[in-house]
Design brief:
four-stranded antiparallel sheet; alpha+beta; disordered N terminus; Immunoglobulin-like; globular; 3 domains; single chain; 15% strand; 343 residues
């Protein structure tokens, strides 16, 4: 009986340790108060711009966000204006306080009043919006080798600094692993964006992909191990997985073949179903659920897709493939609206 009590107690403790713990973020706004504050909802701990919620500050500019997480995660806070983002490292059961100062021209300055040394370090790292279509210029494309070398060097420098933090304070091991993988994904996405732009430019001239560019692209992506759960928690995880799919397309098909097959599915009204089938073909099962949910969320809220009835079957298939998926809530309402508009 004594042993049963001990075993039962251990089970209770283990169960409790896996329960989400509440963290609280208090925010105050100085200047013109926006109608909405946007923040990523950390489903399974991911920081994904597709999974975004919003709240309205009170008349004094105060707001509060409660988060439940079992491990460190990243939270994106935004006023929706381009570039007005802040990324907070959130640990379980912690309290955070930030201040947003909004100038008359709409620019936002974020002040973290509870910043740790690691948070301050992370605040100083680049967080470029590389998904902007105009991010790389023609000159960048012409000098892609030098730029990619510089980016790999910057990544190495940052990882060395993270390792130094890790040696000084081993208590925050999980935080260091989160940041390390986030930076690997960030730079792999940055280089993939460059390689993709270069490849498209090359294809226009030569009507085929460049082996050198595809090799660079593949090297960048291979630097990230998505079997490591921290990689999926990175800010640009979805973007990198998307680039991985397209890299595989360019490696396995000619430009004309890609154009023809995409045109075929677009004409049949099944372009999104085709993209999802590519995800199942080229991505490991451990990330398919996340990527496909992110893709459906992004595409189903686009106005141009509000009458795309293929989403109804996509929803049904997603429920079959991933029953009780925590990501379902991010796009289910979007597809319900599409159903309502379908004759």
């Amino acid at each position: 009986m004594k042993y049963l009590i001990i075993i039962f107690s251990i089970c209770i403790l283990t169960s409790c340790s896996q329960q989400p713990k509440k963290s609280v973020l208090r925010g105050t706004i100085k200047g013109e108060i926006p109608n909405k504050i946007y923040y990523t909802t950390p489903i399974n701990g991911v920081c994904n711009r597709q999974f975004t919620a919003s709240l309205s500050p009170d008349s004094l500019g105060n707001f509060s966000i409660e988060l439940k997480n079992t491990e460190p995660s990243l939270l994106k806070i935004s006023t929706k204006a381009r570039g007005n983002n802040y990324f907070l490292i959130v640990e379980p059961s912690n309290y955070y306080e930030i201040e947003l100062t909004i100038s008359q021209d709409g620019k936002v300055a974020f002040t973290n009043k509870t910043a740790t040394t690691m948070q301050s370090f992370y605040d100083g790292l680049p967080q470029e919006d590389m998904m902007n279509c105009r991010y790389y210029t023609e000159n960048d494309i012409d000098t892609y080798t030098e730029i990619s070398d510089s980016l790999f060097h910057d990544l190495k420098t940052e990882l060395i600094k993270v390792e130094k933090f890790k040696k000084i304070n081993k208590r925050y091991h999980d935080v260091y692993e989160l940041i390390k993988n986030d930076r690997k994904v960030y730079y792999a996405t940055m280089i993939s964006r460059l390689a993709c732009a270069c490849n498209i430019n090359f294809m226009r001239k030569e009507h085929k992909s460049s082996e050198d560019i595809l090799k660079l692209w593949g090297n960048a992506i291979s630097n990230v191990d998505f079997s490591n759960k921290e990689a999926l928690l990175a800010i640009h995880a979805y973007d990198l997985l998307d680039f991985k799919i397209w890299l595989n397309m360019y490696q396995n098909y000619t430009v004309n073949e890609i154009k023809e097959v995409r045109a075929k599915y677009r004409k049949e009204g099944l372009i999104h179903s085709h993209t999802i089938s590519l995800a199942k073909e080229y991505l490991t099962k451990s990330v398919q659920e996340f990527y496909i949910a992110s893709y459906i969320t992004l595409q189903s809220r686009q106005k141009r897709n509000q009458k795309a009835i293929e989403f109804i079957e996509i929803l049904n298939q997603y429920n079959l493939d991933y029953p009780n998926s925590p990501y379902l809530k991010s796009f289910e309402k979007n597809i319900e609206r599409i159903k309502e508009q379908t004759p």
